[in-house]
Specification:
- The chain has 516 residues and is α+β, with helices and mostly antiparallel strands.
- Helix content is 50%, strand content 8%.
- Strands 1-2-3-4 form a four-stranded mixed beta sheet.
- Helix 2 links the parallel strand 1 and strand 2.
- The structure holds coenzyme A (COA).
- The site of coenzyme A (COA) has 17 residues, from helix 21.
- The site of coenzyme A has 17 residues, from helix 21.
Length: 516
């Protein structure tokens, strides 16, 4: 029985969300899903007047996304569940919970007579009933947790159907076009963009933190010699681990907000120095100290390449860095939050996030898109090369995305940056993009495959002199800002993340056999 502390049975009316977020059947999926995003709800009840006639949930949107249909041309009526099952407001929480489970629903409209009065979700019920969902509901959870909402966040979000993502309340691409990396970093940390004075103060605060601590520096040459080939991201992971110990990072559970925020700034500030130092040491070159007068991106290129970069290169890389700070609940961000939820220190969470990013399915390999360009070689080769690759069942690197079924906004911006920079590869890249999108539409109809962030990122970084082995580490140097923002948010309102699994092995308990 679901009871409160005093033993009283609770009813649905006490915990339902009211008024519920609604839609009408003739609206488009894009309109309804935007409302769900804005109002931060997992479903909309479709109404005709006060009467519920359907329900559309996040699960429907996930199915819809994989159908490849156009959200702004498809009506809610085509994807909603019509005549939804409902509960009465005076029903007990426990019995509503059971009904949801038996029917496999996650959201139920609450209906009084004929009128919709609220909505109750599995989450609302579980908060009250504290009933373990494993087993009974495990089969419902999609593999890879695709589409499952696991937290609330103020940091940012991706709207895949619309080709839009944002940091806090700002369009991320507009930030990349109009602001500096330091401004975006400040926004992620503090939840607001800095004034001119705040920006200067922040730059002054960060400047000394770029230096590698004296007791960590002598350890780096050995790390930079490990592995053949040396993997800079592995080196960074070890360096962050050493940094956490050297600076005495304490468990996030034991520290107050400002100490954790300082740890976050320390880590983000030093990552570019770690990466470029490890890179140069591995190449047998002398590491270069941070340049006190250069902003983040220009300093990164300077420490890597040994020369103050032309302003157009610094700005191009800066725009790439801003555009990759955060991108929803991706695997590395989630990892950082899971580790933080245990109360571990910030360096522990960042090393875990770097590990998650190192996997080819996540950090990927922006260099692979460039390798494809090299393999194609000339614009005339684009059509036959691409056609035969897709016909052989191969994937074109830099195309397709799990969330975006329309243009990836980062790719659109980076195409513009690449055009602005010029350089030999841009013409070929655009020819390949045009050909690939056309051939994929023909040979993979309905899949909606367009360029992703990696396609033009490779071109931009290559033109700015970033070596291919530093592409993914460069991505890590901006994503660490996103990770630390999520770590601070998680620590600020923490509950241990501890899901369950459904056991599907041989039935226990089996007798333990004697050693034979
Ligand atoms: C990014 C990616 C992993 C997303 O994959 P996903 O959402 O799981 O998509 P799926 O694997 O379900 O693919 C759906 C269909 O599109 C096809 N497809 C997806 N990406 C493709 C690509 N880049 N080239 C050719 N076909 C592709 C798949 O073959 C599949 O076709 P099928 O229905 O005939 O089997 C995938 O698009 C990919 O592998 N891209 C290439 C690698 C890349 O650029 N990675 C960087 C990502 S930022």
């Amino acid at each position: 029985m679901a009871q409160d502390g005093g033993g009283k049975t609770r009813t649905v009316a006490e915990i339902m969300s009211s008024p519920p977020v609604t839609a009408i059947a003739s609206e488009t999926i894009a309109e309804a899903s935007e409302r769900m995003g804005e109002r931060k709800v997992g479903s909309v009840v479709v109404v005709d007047g006060a009467r519920p006639v359907g329900i559309m949930t996040e699960r429907d949107l996930v199915r819809f996304a994989s159908s490849g249909a156009d959200a702004s041309a498809t009506k809610v009526s085509e994807w909603m569940t019509a005549d939804p099952w409902s509960v009465a407001p005076d029903e007990e929480v426990e019995s509503a919970f059971q009904s949801l489970g038996e029917k496999g629903y996650r959201h139920i409209p609450v209906v009084d007579g004929d009128a919709l009065v609220g909505i109750v979700s599995m989450r609302d019920l579980m908060k009250i009933a504290r009933i373990q969902p494993a087993g009974r509901f495990a089969g419902e959870i999609p593999p890879g947790l695709e589409g499952v909402v696991v937290a609330e966040t103020n940091i940012g979000h991706v709207r895949g159907q619309q080709g839009f993502y944002h940091y806090r309340q700002y369009n991320a691409i507009e930030l990349a076009e109009q602001r500096t990396l330091e401004d975006a970093w400040y926004l992620m940390l503090n939840g607001k963009l800095p004034t001119l004075e705040e920006r200067e103060r922040f730059i002054d605060q960060v400047r000394p933190l770029r230096e590698i601590p004296a007791n960590v520096k002598p350890l780096l040459p050995r790390i930079a010699q490990l592995g053949d080939p040396f993997v800079p991201l592995n080196g960074l992971r070890s360096a962050i681990s050493l940094l956490g110990s050297a600076l005495g990072f304490r468990p996030s559970l034991d520290v107050v907000d400002h100490e954790l925020q300082h740890n976050a700034t320390q880590v983000c500030a030093v990552v570019p120095t770690f990466l470029t130092t490890l890179y140069r040491l591995n190449k047998g070159l002398d590491p270069i100290e941070p340049h006190p007068e250069l902003p983040y991106a220009a300093n990164y290129l300077y420490m890597m390449l040994g020369e103050i970069p032309p302003p157009e290169h610094a700005r191009a890389v800066e725009q790439y860095l801003i555009s990759t700070i955060d991108h929803g609940f991706n695997a590395s961000t989630f990892t950082a939050r899971v580790i933080t939820s245990t109360g571990a220190d910030l360096a522990a969470a960042i090393t875990g996030a770097i590990s998650a990013l190192s996997g080819p399915l996540h950090g990927g390999a922006p260099s692979r898109a460039l390798d494809m360009l090299d393999a194609i070689g000339t614009p005339e080769q684009a059509e036959p090369w691409i056609r035969s690759a897709v016909e052989r069942g191969e994937r074109l690197m830099g195309f397709g995305h799990r969330v975006y079924k329309t243009d990836d906004p980062r790719s659109v911006m980076l195409r513009g940056v690449a055009e602005r920079l010029g350089g030999g590869n841009v013409g070929l890249a655009k020819q390949i993009e045009e050909t690939a999108v056309r051939v994929l539409a023909e040979l993979k109809p309905g899949r909606k495959l367009y360029t992703n962030v990696e396609f033009y990122a490779g071109i931009v970084m290559d033109t700015c002199g970033v070596p291919r082995e530093m592409f993914t580490p460069t991505f890590a140097s901006s994503r660490v800002i996103g990770w630390t923002s999520h770590i601070l948010e998680q620590a600020n309102d923490n509950r241990l993340i501890r899901p369950s699994a459904e056991y599907v092995g041989p039935p226990p308990p089996q007798p333990v056999p004697a050693v034979s």
